[in-house]
Amino acid sequence: MDLEVVTIGTELLLGFLVDTNAAWLGQALSESGIRVTRRTSVPDDRAAIAEAVALGLRRTRFVITSGGLGPTSDDVTREAVAALFGLPLEFQPAIWEELQARFARIGRALADRNRCQAEVPRGAVVLPNPRGTAPGLWVSGEAGEVVMLPGVPRELSGLVTEEVVPRLRARSGGRVVRSRVVRTTGIPESRLAERIAHLEPTLPPLTVAYLPILEGVDLRLTAWDLPPDNADRLLLDAAEKLQEVLGEHVYATGEGDLAAQLLDACRSRRLRLAVAESCTGGLIAARITAIPGSSDVFVGGMVTYADQVKEALGVPARILEAHGAVSEETAAALAAAVRTRYRADLAVGVTGIAGPGGGSTEKPIGLVWFGVADGRGVETRRHVFPGSRHEVRARATQFALWSLWRRALSSGSGPGSQ
Amino acid sequence: MDLEVVTIGTELLLGFLVDTNAAWLGQALSESGIRVTRRTSVPDDRAAIAEAVALGLRRTRFVITSGGLGPTSDDVTREAVAALFGLPLEFQPAIWEELQARFARIGRALADRNRCQAEVPRGAVVLPNPRGTAPGLWVSGEAGEVVMLPGVPRELSGLVTEEVVPRLRARSGGRVVRSRVVRTTGIPESRLAERIAHLEPTLPPLTVAYLPILEGVDLRLTAWDLPPDNADRLLLDAAEKLQEVLGEHVYATGEGDLAAQLLDACRSRRLRLAVAESCTGGLIAARITAIPGSSDVFVGGMVTYADQVKEALGVPARILEAHGAVSEETAAALAAAVRTRYRADLAVGVTGIAGPGGGSTEKPIGLVWFGVADGRGVETRRHVFPGSRHEVRARATQFALWSLWRRALSSGSGPGSQ
User: Fold this and answer.
1) Are A356 and B191 in contact (CB < 8 Å)?
2) Is residue A67 a contact partner of residue A45, using CB atoms and an 8 Å limit?
3) Which terminus of chain B has fewer Cβ atoms in its 10 Å neighbourhood, N or C?
4) Residue in A42, A131, A305 nearest the CB of B295
């Protein structure tokens, strides 16, 4: 099944917003065997919206729109599409009452201008949107079908997953485009390509794409237009082959996050975790605590930005004086101190120079020292990361998580160890 | 001057790539007074490319394409556009020799398949691309003009900046599209709209757009097609009017981050800052330390995830037992304790339930308690945030930064206080 997507918003064309909905929609639909054959972005303008939707209907008879369903005067999608189908907008008291009741439950009042979000083109199917105030609207007519969705990403994705895809899947004939990602870290793209070169001829009909991101390189394997079972089996086999060759550089075959893998590795070994961060400034703790259920493994962290706080944690002043705050000795002392202080089993200490200021020939911007402490002692690693302050911090955070993960795996009492 | 953009690539439609070029192009062009009136994404398919370009030419007589100029068989933009204008492709030896010489200089060989990148529609202007192998191509004819650019982001942006914008600027008559954002937090979109309703009629020729993000609502004022000085003055005046009405809900008129504003407010008042975070798990510290130069204000933070760590910081066990970890008393004690322990002037303590588990009728998911401590004592606030774990954490982080910022402003010894 083919369809077109029309994303609506002057901001999209001005480039003040990156159209992440478009990518997300493409993935979610192709995953169900539905192909997006064209995507058009138009401003918040009735005529432009109507023209783009009408052309899309002429080509595929099915259009999904996102955006322009809000309560303000620049939200005109509802009117444009209703007019295109020659349908009047009708106020539906039930929608309005449900909205009011929902707001009342969380102790908030709903503004009167939201009333327009209870207006529906006559005969349209209303798709409930528990995450926001604008329901999705599914209009059918001679010209084809239009599904209008709100532009707020979590509202759009909720409606697509719960309301749109289940209805469309029935029409897609059982073939899918499916992909699986093999997530790597600690190895640059060119070295990765060399390591797996001998495997590439064995991958078709799957394709493989290299996606370098801040946290490493994702390898995306894709199966095109195959029956679901066949696609899944091929993808799983190929992911396992890659993992065998790449070893500890692969931290997930699937959408997994390294912090989640670390928590699992600790949990199965009953290891309690703590962190002491300087240049990463809370990012390691934030990555870990982003995972639901992290509290049964993660004890806590310290962001030891000022030297006085490093000392208060238990880093001896003589170490800071003799070697400086960014040094192997400080990283090791941070890890050991936070492990003891927080009664954790496994801990990391991180100290470095994220930039843009503060670098020197001896200690350049991007230099980061890591200490990993467990019952066996403290291990240290030095790394110089390229890029901006943001990039150095993100890369150092990933490296710290990777170091902790490998240390946990090697501690040997869990099911995943060798 | 109006034009349309056509981005080309099957990967874009499948959603495996986010179309960052589109946003970048929108910004770069509007900054020079050129308006992108529509953007279309099509797969690597001759007919689809030709149709999208032809429709764009009919509407605006000017189209910029990105992508599909590479050396592989799925790169068909060159052929599609040449055919549309009825022009033959001609191999230009000079381009090929220059490419070979460039590769020889960096010790690499150029594959024969790159020869097609030296093919040019007859009469096209060739735009040199020192960052890659595909030059830009500018074709003119009866139907209008098409500029073909490569899809690699840094090649595209280099060509636009160095070759396209300078040629187009001359046509835009010195008029620009410029915008300014007024960043608000702590007030929902609908309430915001009511508060500024009386101002909206005074804003034209500027337009205003509401952009709800996790951290609040951004109001984007835009001046269309005006001389630069005039645009800047109107934008500044309007931003000031909005700020006057919205008061402390406006934390920046411009691209400013709330963490940066907080650091400035503290710096000018010589306040040193510390944080104790439970449910936000390091995000507040990470937002603060993302700002270069934060170390002269920010002392450090604690991520007090486990109760034992809250106690170690100095939250009395009897408070945790009597009121629970998520309580007004614990938030206040966290703030006071980290302020004392870290010898800071201003501190926040945050404790809450981010979900997805752990909620109850009395303490629902999304409930967060905040304590803000300074020399005058501790102030507490309760808030229930909607959304997922990620959203609750991001919103609570913004609320904590906002609370700290207002407390800093009210401490009265800096230039920004009343």
Assistant:
1) no
2) no
3) C
4) A305
Task: Please give the model's pTM, rounded to 2 decimal places.
Answer: 0.79
The owner of tokens 């486990």 is B306
Of A413, A290, A278, A411, residue with least CA distance to A346: A411
Q: Which residues of A touch B15 (CB under 8 A)?
A: 22-28, 30, 36
Question: A165 and A186, same structural domain?
Answer: no
Residue where a domain terminates, one of A125, A153, A169: A169
Between A100 and B336, whose confidence is greater? Answer: B336
Candidates A40, A279, A293; nearest CB to B38:
A40
Report the C-alpha gap between B305 and B282 in whole angstroms: 10
Residue with tokens 């004022």: B221
What pLDDT shows up at residue A172?
66
Identify the H or E element spanning A311: helix A307-313
Alpha helix stretches (DSSP H) within A106-211: 153-159, 165-169, 189-196
Q: Are B277 and B245 contained in the same domain?
A: no
Q: What is the CATH number of the domain that holds B377?
A: 3.90.950.20
Give tens-digit pLDDT for A106-137.
Answer: 777 788 888 888 999 999 999 999 888 899 99
Q: Please tell me which residue of chain A has the smallest CA distance to B19.
A: A19
Contact residues, chain B, for A150 at CB < 8 Å: none
Whether the per-residue pLDDT at B263 is higher than 60: the answer is: yes
Residues A60 and A139 in one domain: yes
Domain extent, residue B184, equals 176-253
The verdict on whether omega for the bond into residue A153 sits within 30 degrees of 0, i.e. cis, is no
Share of chain A above pLDDT 90, in %: 67
Nearest to A23 among B15, B284, B286 (CB): B15
